[in-house]
Design brief:
- The chain is an alpha+beta fold.
- It is built from 5 helices and 7 strands, in the order E-H-E-E-H-E-E-E-H-H-E-H.
- The protein has a 5-stranded antiparallel beta sheet with strand order 2-3-4-5-6, with helices on both faces.
- The chain is globular, with a radius of gyration of 16 Å.
- Removes the formyl group from the N-terminal Met of newly synthesized proteins. Requires at least a dipeptide for an efficient rate of reaction. N-terminal L-methionine is a prerequisite for activity but the enzyme has broad specificity at other positions.
- Keywords: Hydrolase, Iron, Metal-binding, Protein biosynthesis.
- InterPro entries: Peptide_deformylase (IPR023635), Peptide_deformylase_sf (IPR036821).
- It comes from Sinomicrobium pectinilyticum.
Length: 196
């Protein structure tokens, strides 16, 4: 089932998220719905707060990046089959040089900006079967994970921009929260809710 994606300005995107356990109601269905919602919006990652749930869960399928001819073969290979569920994730380390990459977000449509992040991460998480993992990632895979991880920490990619960039985007962000934006996927807008 395709769920509406919560737009910028909704308080759930800033809420502190909580851990879940294997008894979380209909977890398998929720994960399936999150992947379906993400694919419908042509995303590569989706976090639970983006569908209105303040829990530590996100899904990623980075395989669309594998089509990028400019990437090295090794990285394209890593991206090709990278589809994962992250439950109760904790980033243990972020290391390496910071590098900029143009990011966007399904909750902040039609805005893309360069964001600097460290190149390597070490992360601890549970998969959909509640098997615990501690893995290390780098490059684009690490970046997609960092972006989605920020969502479960109440952080948006626009928070990482300079004060000037934030000021320049203020009007566009306000319009998104009011529903004054054109998207080809289902969204839920905070301002529209207030007006009912």
């Amino acid at each position: 089932m395709i769920l509406p994606i919560v737009a910028y300005g909704d308080p759930v995107l800033r809420k502190e998220t909580r851990d879940i356990d294997e008894n979380y109601p209909e977890l398998g269905t929720l994960i399936d719905n999150m992947f379906e919602t993400m694919y419908n919006a042509y995303g590569v990652g989706l976090a639970a707060p983006q569908i209105g749930l303040p829990v530590r869960l996100f899904v990623i399928d980075a395989s669309p990046f594998a089509e990028d001819e400019e990437l090295e073969d090794e990285e394209r290979e890593q991206l090709k089959g990278f589809k994962k569920v992250f439950i109760n994730a904790r980033i243990l380390e972020e290391t390496g040089e910071e590098w900029a990459f143009n990011e966007g977000c399904l909750s902040i449509p039609n805005i893309r900006e360069d964001v600097s992040r460290e190149e390597k991460i070490k992360i601890e998480y549970f998969d959909e079967n509640f098997v615990k993992h501690t893995d290390e990632y780098d490059g684009l895979v690490a970046r997609v994970i960092q972006h989605e991880y920020d969502h479960i920490e109440g952080i948006l990619f626009t928070d990482k921009l300079s004060a000037l960039k934030k000021r320049l985007l203020k009007g566009k962000l306000a319009n998104i929260s009011k529903g004054k934006v054109s998207v080809d996927y289902k969204m839920r807008f905070p301002e529209a809710k207030k007006g009912r």
